[in-house]
Amino acid sequence: MDFSDVSLTALRVFREVAEQGTFTAAAGTLGYTQSAVSRQIASLERAAGTALLERRREGVRLTAAGHVVLRRATTVIEEIDTTARELAGLPAQAGTVRVGWFPSAGAVLVTEALTALRRAHPAVTVITREGSTPALVRALRAGSLDLALLASAPPFRPPDTGSPPLTLLTLTERSLRLAVPATDPLARGDFVDVADLRGRRWIAGPASGEDRLMGVWPGLDERPEIAHTARDWLAKLHLVAAGCGLTTVSASLARAAPPGVRILPVRGGPQEQRRLVLAHLPHPLSEPAARVAEALRTAAVEANAEP
């Protein structure tokens, strides 16, 4: 085992592969060819004397040794970047907090938390990005995010089996809701009966290897008719307003719904609970990160308190 000749480029490539989950995605982000990424990973594994990544059909997964190298690589990269900033005369980024969030969290929760944070703690800089749960968890493990907002459904398992386990804080728990065109007969009451969802057309997110089919009411006893697919939640809600179908939403999105949409609970069948979870690596948060976490918690509680 000899790390004396390991390059900083190899460490950066390894961290990107760990975060992206595939060599192809990492190559695209870095602007490298896939073969160049493979060569950098191979050189790092030769230096480690063991495999750092488990190659699978759907992507790569860190081995136990890979987790060790990732932690050390992240520390080295951050130290080098801090040194470069100091030598360039730029201010340190100690007050910068990197936050990831699941699709739809940005419509209300993240924006309200950032607004409150700017008023209370203007020195804290927050950089955010949207992503799927697997992508956000990989970014946490890679050290590219400090905090991640995740959506969790029953049976509420941890988002991954990595070691050490992530620290998970449940911010809220509330039932899933249904977005209905205001002109639809379903919108006349204060709730929708699950039996009335049979034979309806749905607006769902595009299926992928990482995400389940989102937008269709869970547990329907029929094959759903997917009329439209859209990843963007605002696009889904505007399609609902146009009478193109129904879609599921988190309760917090009620305030972001455009005119022509009613957000309603569903009665009958199993309770479809959803948790909003704040995740981070199992170490004490920095003061800026703790302030961001508190702002997110407050925004989540206030959104959950609304009808």
Question: What do you see in this structure?
Answer:
The chain is of the alpha/beta class. The chain folds into three domains: 80 residues, Winged helix-like DNA-binding domain superfamily/Winged helix DNA-binding domain (Arc Repressor Mutant, subunit A); 109 residues, Periplasmic binding protein-like II (D-Maltodextrin-Binding Protein, domain 2), CATH 3.40.190.10; 95 residues, D-Maltodextrin-Binding Protein, domain 2 (3-Layer(aba) Sandwich), CATH 3.40.190. It is built from eight helices and 14 strands. The strands form five sheets. It has a five-stranded mixed sheet, with helices on both faces. A three-stranded antiparallel sheet has the order 11-7-12. β3, α5 and β4 form a beta-alpha-beta unit. α1 packs across α3 and α1 runs antiparallel to α6. The chain is globular, with a radius of gyration of 22 Å. 33% of the residues are buried.
